[in-house]
Amino acid sequence: MVKVAVVGASGGIGQPLSLLLKLNPLVSELALYDVRLAQGVAKDLSHISTNAVCKGFDKDQIAEALRGAHVVLIPAGVPRKPGMTRDDLFKINAGIVKGIVTAIGQHCPDARILIISNPVNSTVPIAVETLKAMGKFYPGNVMGVTTLDVVRAETFLADYLIAQKKNSLSKQFDKTKMYKDVTVIGGHSGNTIVPVLKKKPLISTLASSYDEFVQRVQFGGDEVVKAKDGAGSATLSMALAGYRFAEQVLKSIHRENTPPIPTYVYLPGIANGVKAQAKLSSSLEYFSLPANLLDGRVTSVDDTILDSLSPQERKLVERAVKELGSNIDKGKKFVNGNA
Ligand code: NAI
């Protein structure tokens, strides 16, 4: 019996994400909370003939929505408009995330918390510091969802590799076989996003397309913001990505073995987090690395990925480390003062 709560359930991400969760047989109860429209979204989904019991909760009902939740997904807050960076969202979303996480600390402190709200580089530190201040922080429970970067990297890698086989039609290739060749580490904004190719010769295969590939993974979100022309950022691909991550957490809660999955975590709280920090040559407290889950919580990260980087990837990591420091400090200061 697993209760999943979605906070921000009526939004562009929240609605399709809730739909996907309603279809998952591992979810027994789905609590949808938002400051608007959650009752309507929940009523709609509740007519779908799957096992999960789906209920909506209004603005003043966050306690009921969260009580007993094993997993909480947070896609609440404002999305980007053209010309904005994720950091531009900080002013509004920092307070929203702090408020929601405070409620989690009060009503379901053991829950696994999956943070989608941007800027993830800062909202995850906000969540951790908020819980620490309440004495309710359990390392491994707080996970920043960076899966959309992995999904984009898979798509773009396959597209570039197929484009190189010029005389063949793309339908002749099984793209899914190429997806396993890439993952993404670092943070979740522009230069902090670092695609890592698992087979290094692919860098020479991509040749002049390699830089373009990296750029598209790092700034793929901008393509969507521009195309939506003021109506927001990625919602459908993000719902899929958020669901993909949540599905692994749910499987892990059900004692299934799950492959390591990248997530932005508080390194000092994880078994080999300090070792990972040493490999990053930095005291950076947060970084996304493929994480091992047990009971839906991060127990350790795959720090060996940092040993196998190509010189190009190592440079990208160095740049990410530099930029992430200020994003993290900003989040910490928002909770602890001096902001
Ligand atoms: P949206 O505006 O469509 O939906 C946000 C929802 O949050 C709205 O329904 C709103 O009523 C609700 N909300 C606002 N304050 C709330 C509060 N205090 N408690 C509960 N609900 C509240 O936005 P969209 O497109 O769904 O994006 C949501 C967030 O996800 C944004 O911050 C966006 O930047 C982020 N995002 C993250 C990605 C990632 O890869 N981690 C990718 C794409 C977007």
From TrEMBL:
PROSITE patterns: MDH. Residues 146-335 form the Lactate/malate dehydrogenase C-terminal domain. SUPFAM superfamilies: LDH C-terminal domain-like, NAD(P)-binding Rossmann-fold domains. GO terms for molecular function: L-malate dehydrogenase (NAD+) activity. Pfam families: Ldh_1_C (PF02866), Ldh_1_N (PF00056). Residues 2-144 form the Lactate/malate dehydrogenase N-terminal domain. Keywords: NAD, Oxidoreductase, Tricarboxylic acid cycle. NAD(+) binds at G8, A9, S10, G11, G12, I13, G14, D34, N93, I116, S117, N118, M238. The active site is at H188. Gene3D superfamilies: Lactate dehydrogenase/glycoside hydrolase, family 4, C-terminal, NAD(P)-binding Rossmann-like Domain. NCBIfam families: MDH_euk_gproteo (TIGR01772). This is Malate dehydrogenase. It comes from Torulaspora globosa. The lineage of its organism: Eukaryota, Fungi, Dikarya, Ascomycota, Saccharomycotina.
